[in-house]
Amino acid sequence: MKPVVLRLGIADHLGWAVAVTGTLVAAVRVSVVRATSAALDDIATALPAPVVSISLRTWPLDFPEDISVQRRSPYEARDDAVMYRKVLSELALARNWHVGLYDAKDVEAQAVGMLAERAEAVLHGPRATLGPPWTKDHRTALAATIVGR
Question: pLDDT at residue 14 above 90?
Answer without folding.
Answer: no
